[in-house]
Write a sequence for this structure.
């Protein structure tokens, strides 16, 4: 029922704003408490389960076949001898070590790539902040600031972005229309809160696009580029893998 004019009551806006602010702070505190309650072992165990589902014979299989892209068997790629690697391992080979040397990612093969490029995980750089200019970034830095770049970042730096829940869009094309479309769509996803890096990459064939998240890769000719393909990959895999518990965007 609408109030009559003589019965209209003023809404106490200032107390409401205060209450909303308090509620927001409480929400943030609750989130941080929940995250703190998850031990590193819990987060790493969950991450390892996202990398690999062991079948009855102890072989790694795709734990999420409904996700876009091809699954890459990181535990197999980075194993030592007969011992499979896994995320966070402290008693054997792992898929997330920080290193200060270049990394050969060619072993990360999948159903749609015989070269293993671009990478989707594995050893990577993490010595400190990169800044926003690849040309002047310090050695072995990572991860890079989220965003769109026209100068290439080293693969070792942006693999760290995938470890932080991000998606990397790689391209090797001089076609300005292809680049403009990618920048538009990636920019829109970033504006929506997506954790995304777009970078040129000479490690894939000319006129090729690649979308990657931790352990997943979609590589295709630039002629097959569509908005749906790019956005589906970003939206479904943004923060899917997030073992370090970072607050992800509003996707």
């Amino acid at each position: 029922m609408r109030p009559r004019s003589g019965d209209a009551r003023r809404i106490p806006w200032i107390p409401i704003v205060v209450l909303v602010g308090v509620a927001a702070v409480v929400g943030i505190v609750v989130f941080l408490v929940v995250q703190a309650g998850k031990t590193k072992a819990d987060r790493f165990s969950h991450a390892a389960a996202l990398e690999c589902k062991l079948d009855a014979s102890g072989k790694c299989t795709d734990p999420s076949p409904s996700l876009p892209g091809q699954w890459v068997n990181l535990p197999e790629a980075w194993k030592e001898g007969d011992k499979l690697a896994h995320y966070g391992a402290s008693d054997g080979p792992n898929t997330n070590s920080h290193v200060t040397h270049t990394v050969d990612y060619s072993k990360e093969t999948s159903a749609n790539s015989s070269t293993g490029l671009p990478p989707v995980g594995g050893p990577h750089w993490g010595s400190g902040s990169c800044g926003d200019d690849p040309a002047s970034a310090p050695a072995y830095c990572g991860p890079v600031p989220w965003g769109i770049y026209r100068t290439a970042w080293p693969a070792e730096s942006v693999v760290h972005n995938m470890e932080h829940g991000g998606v990397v869009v790689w391209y090797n094309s001089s076609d300005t229309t292809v680049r403009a479309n990618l920048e538009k769509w990636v920019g829109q996803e970033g504006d929506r809160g997506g954790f995304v890096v777009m970078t040129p990459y000479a490690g894939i064939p000319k006129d090729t696009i690649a979308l990657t998240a931790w352990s997943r890769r979609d590589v295709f000719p630039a002629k097959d580029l569509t908005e749906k393909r790019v956005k589906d990959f970003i939206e479904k895999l943004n923060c899917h893998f997030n073992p370090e518990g970072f607050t992800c965007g509003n996707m």
